[in-house]
Amino acid sequence: MKKSGTVILTLVVVVLFSFTVYAPSDTNPDIQVTLVEQSPSPVEPGQVVNLRFQIENDAAASSKDVIVEFKETFPFTIYGDTLSKNIGTLRAGSDVVIVEFQVKVDEDAVEKDTEVVLQVHHGTGSALYDNEEFTVDIQTQDAVLDIVSITTDPQQIPPGGTGEVTFIVKNLADSLLRNVKFNLDFDDDDIPLAPFSSSSEKILDQLKSDFQDAIKFTLIADPEATPGLYKVPLTITYNDERGNTTTITDLLAVKVGDTPKLRVHIKRSTVLEDGAQGKVTLELANAGTTDVKLVELTLLPSEEYQLITPSNYFYIGDIDADDTESEEIHLYIKSGVDMLTLPIKVAYYDANNRPLQQQVELPLQLYSSGDLKRFGLVERSSAFIWILLLLLAGGGYWWYTKKYKPKKKKR
Q1: 159: which residues sit within 8 A by CB, 6+ positions away?
Q2: How far apart are CA 126 and CA 258, in angstroms?
Q3: CA–CA separation, 296 vs 345, rounded Å?
Q4: Over its length of 411 residues, how does the chain's per-residue pLDDT go in tens digits?
């Protein structure tokens, strides 16, 4: 019995020693972290994003407070928040806590999935959890393809003529754009335009960040097209590096019209010599294919003439293509003028309300009295003829009386 008691006592001591050796002096939890929400998603460079992390303990309860720390790395900085948060102790087995950080994204951030660093500490000791695999989706939401300029050469396409429309586009994103497509829709019968020697779709295979390129269309206008402004539906599509497709719809405005050919000339004139007055008829001829509107004519001042007409301004109005309008002015020509010059200013608008102006000097030949008589522009004076006739008559009478009148006899 004594021996058995000794054995039992020995076993008890061994068991107690075993518990003393393997009992932990501190308990470390098994931490698992998940990024459960990013708001907004995606976030734009320069914006603030809220990141919510789920902290789980799958092992023994923590004996110390658990500290969750956000590590600032470009392009992320804490915004109105703290870098670390104490969530207290975690109970054993699937204890879950949600931790949220408010983070500012730098304006120069690259558009891509960008890693954030999060660490979890047990008390003040080394990190129990360190993960750099959480990513934040950074992407510009607005269109990143900028149409820098649209030019048409010539500014308006004449009926039956061709013109070139050029788009200058620039990639404002910090990533590559692919398959940049421009499509013009000419299906509407009211649009008197069509692509010339090319298709209605142009493609840029790729456009690098901060680069620009040109897309050109050659268009032809219907020969019977009415001058005016026509709106052509435009569709632009492109893909970013993530494979996302962006579509932009707009209208391309194209002017159809021709530069007017307005001619001013002297149609008739009764002004023939200096030092005299007369009337001059000015004619305006529209020799082009497009109408002109709101035509105004002004006779400019000159030292060569004095205006008898009450005003030097004349409102002509509209002149259709292949038509004429005329205006009569009354002038007195000053002495000593051999060649009269009429300075004329004409202001008008084309069919697309584009203001135009031209100034011309119209020459008018003047003649001397001798030239006027020689050219038959004035009747010769009859006074000389009458004098000559009288002289002839007088001479004839004298000759008659001399030859035929009987002489008186002498007494």
Answers
A1: 192, 221, 222, 223, 224, 225, 227, 256, 257, 258, 289
A2: 81
A3: 8
A4: 445 555 444 444 434 433 333 333 345 678 889 999 999 988 988 999 999 999 988 777 877 888 999 999 999 999 999 999 999 888 876 678 999 999 999 988 887 889 999 999 888 777 778 777 899 998 876 668 889 999 999 999 999 999 999 999 999 887 789 999 999 999 998 999 999 988 899 999 999 988 999 999 999 999 989 889 999 999 999 998 778 888 999 999 999 998 889 999 999 988 888 888 999 999 999 998 888 999 999 999 999 999 999 999 999 999 998 899 999 999 998 988 888 899 999 999 998 888 999 999 999 888 767 666 665 655 555 555 667 677 777 777 777 777 666 655 554
Q: Are the CB atoms for 120 and 30 separated by under 8 Å?
A: no
Query: Which positions ≥6 away from 8 have C-beta within 8 Å?
Result: none
Give which of 250, 254, 235, 248 is closest to 191, Cα–Cα: 254
Take residue 207 and report the two structure tokens written for it: 């456009």
- Separation of alpha carbons 342 and 360, rounded Å: 8
For residue 326, give the nearest of 318, 311, 316, 317 by alpha carbon. Answer: 316
Q: ∠ CA 9-12-18 to the nearest 5 degrees?
A: 145
Enumerate domains of the chain plus CATH numbers.
31-137 (2.60.40.10), 145-256 (2.60.40.10), 262-372 (2.60.40.10)
Question: Residue 35, class by beta-carbon neighbours within 10 Å (0-12 exposed, 13-18 middle, 19+ buried)?
Answer: middle
Please answer whether residues 180 and 211 qualify as being in contact, where contact means their C-beta atoms are separated by less than 8 angstroms.
no
Cα of 399 vs its chain's centroid, Å:
101
